[in-house]
Amino acid sequence: MQKSSDLFKRREAILPKGVGYFTHGATAVRGEGALLYDADGRALIDFASGIGVTNIGHAQSTVVQAIKDQAEHLLHACIHVATYEPYLALCEKLAELLPHGDATKVFLTNTGAEAVENAVKIARQATGRAGIICFTEGFHGRTLLAMSLTSKVGYKTHCGPFAPEIYRLQSPNYWRYGDGLSEAAFIERELRRFRQALVNTVAPEQVAAVLIEPVQGEGGFVVIPPAYLQGLRQICDEHGILLILDEVQSGFGRTGSWAAYEHTGVTPDISTWAKAMGGGLPIACVIGKAHVMDACAPGTLGGTYGGNPVACASALATLQVMEAQNLNARARAIGETVRTRFLAIQAKCPLVGDVRGIGAMQAMEFILAGDKNQPAGAFVKEVLTDCLAKGLLIISAGAHGNIIRTLPPLVITDAQLTEALDILERSILEVAFGMPR
Length: 437
Prior knowledge:
Layout: H1 2-14, E1 30-32, E2 35-37, E3 43-46, H2 49-52, H3 61-71, H4 85-97, E4 104-109, H5 112-127, E5 131-135, H6 144-149, E6 166-169, H7 174-177, H8 183-200, E7 207-212, E8 215-216, E9 222-223, H9 226-239, E10 242-246, E11 270-273, E12 284-289, H10 290-293, H11 309-324, H12 327-348, E13 352-358, E14 361-368, E15 371-375, H13 377-390, E16 392-393, E17 395-397, E18 403-406, H14 414-433
Parallel strand pairs: 3-16, 5-6, 5-7, 7-10, 10-11
Antiparallel strand pairs: 1-2, 2-3, 4-12, 8-9, 11-12, 13-14, 14-15, 14-18, 17-18
């Protein structure tokens, strides 16, 4: 383990402690498909994808070639200085794949957090209002405004004061807050609570937008019920409030569709995207209804590196690969396999409180003594460490780190998927029942 241990010694010496990690001990030198190779030459099945980035797999040949070709012609220009074809082609393709009504416009950024910040700027200019409603368990980034919108307090310790005019409501997490109601009754109650918040928390004429993830990523793969999003869409329309859907982790095939919102029949006014969009290079975007996007004054949107030519070429090639390989369908097949195995594990392990997800975005939440208020974070940490020792890189989620989430590359083979699930199941049962490892 000398090479990996050397990297960690160097990391400890040079990186600030605030740069955390999900799994201590993992290193990466190269990747191929659904595999990562660490500094000691060991192959790891990648169930993290760099937090949902490498949906098309590592070192995908079409994407690598597109990066090389573009790098030979134009590395940088800045869209505010000179207009270049890769930026326009990518925006046109995104509008084609993800239309927002009759006319759609697109703006490119570098990261998901930057996309969220700009979505809020757009919504405030389009409505002339300041308030933003967001939800507990939501994650929207770590810049000041995005961090203010993010719920997880562990990412915000001593980082305030935070941005004003943000109003946080309880997430419609049916498993956690259902209180024995039917799902239909629960959704009706939560929408009623939302309407009440417009009476006793913030007046609707002060609210620019509602921001929500269709599937909460860092929150633990909580799927927002379609009927709730449909009701939210109706409320927003009644009050002239814009609906922003954050698809940074759930987009580009992860749920079995280009967008998680496509499972709900709801079209947002604005949406934010990043992660899997670039195939591994940093690029993100805001997509919105044209009349909303055009409400912004010239000069209020921008940045030096947003829509870098090489990143645009990588994103275009990534979308081409997703279409050619029909990775949306592959995500649905992966999801069925993972969910079936997770339910089988739940039947064997009493610590599994919930199995949930959509498409290849599946998760298990672990609790102690069947009590939702006793998250088994220490247990999950031990399982993840054991999985890594067995050759599987997988990460947690949730405020207490008690949720195991799956983000494998969508090009993972059936054999690799089975091996990964075998390792995960074995680790869970061995840690849970004290079996020798």
